[in-house]
Amino acid sequence: MLEDSKFLGYVVHLPHSDEFLAMSEEDEISEQRMWAKIPGMAIIYNNKKAAKKEAKSYGKGALVVKLFDAGDQYIVAQPK
User: Fold this and answer.
1) Whole-angstrom Cα distance, residue 75 to residue 46?
2) How far is Cα 71 from Cα 14, in angstroms, rounded to an integer?
3) What is the pTM of this model?
4) Within 10 Å of residue 68's Cβ, how many Cβ atoms?
5) CA-CA distances (angstroms) from residue 65 to 16, 29, 31, 46?
6) What is the 8-class DSSP label of residue 2?
7) Lower CB density within 10 Å: C or N end of the chain?
8) Is 38 exposed, middle or buried (0-12, 13-18, 19+ CB in 10 A)?
9) What pLDDT, in 10s, does the model give residues 1-47?
10) Are 10 and 48 in contact (CB under 8 A)?
């Protein structure tokens, strides 16, 4: 199935609530994050390092996963 899909990039995922990071803003006084249930609404990172940095700054079980477009659905997979 992954062979027929297009790799879009890396996204930050919260497995316990099955949500994806859709917005992240930080300044010197606050941090704001919005999460979405739909992987297609997630912030897509071109490299794993940037996604890992965001996941680490959030903590709380956030993981970096690969996002694929399979045409009529999205597929997420743990990177090696």
Assistant:
1) 17
2) 23
3) 0.88
4) 19
5) 14, 29, 22, 12
6) G
7) C
8) exposed
9) 667 889 999 999 999 999 999 999 888 898 899 999 999 999 999 99
10) yes
